[in-house]
Amino acid sequence: MPNTNSPYTAFATLLSSNGHPVSPAELHGLLLGRSCAGAGFDAESWLADASELLENEPSDNVRNALIGLQEMVKGELTGDDITVVLLLPGDELPLTQRAEALGQWCQGFLSGFGLNSGGLVLSAEAREVLGDLDAISQIQDALEESDEGENDYMEVMEYVRIAPLLLFTELTKPAAPAAKPSLH
């Protein structure tokens, strides 16, 4: 019996029952991507970006859920013990569905990052992380139901969990003060 009380399932039900053909994973990825690119945590601009994915105007309960999601992400990224909990289906679902959601999360992240990263100078490491996420967004075809597939999924998921932290830390650290011109 699948756990219908998981945050993922509850959010998926809320979205589909309101006519939004989008996965919670993709929305969560979009939110984290824009946050990592320095979009800040203004609710209106987040709702504007999210509306693109939702394809129609969100009702109050969907808006509230999206704002709640943003508060959670803000807490995760700016809290003392920086950690990200990915909004993905639970282990009780088939691997193919979980891999598909992970791919959707990566697509959402890359979209959110791309929308907000104009003018950012990225380190080689940051560009590599984005390239990895792009590769992972194609993952669903590569994993098959097996112990090996499960292990691969867990490893990839662990990497995806750390990727936003690497980018957020790099791109939101305060700029070094400009060197004062030396007087000779």
Automatic annotation (TrEMBL):
Pfam families: UPF0149 (PF03695). SUPFAM superfamilies: YgfB-like. It comes from Pseudomonas fontis. The lineage of its organism: Bacteria, Pseudomonadati, Pseudomonadota, Gammaproteobacteria, Pseudomonadales. PANTHER family: UPF0149 PROTEIN YGFB (PTHR37528:SF1). This is UPF0149 protein M5G11_09825. HAMAP family: UPF0149 (MF_00346). Belongs to the UPF0149 family.
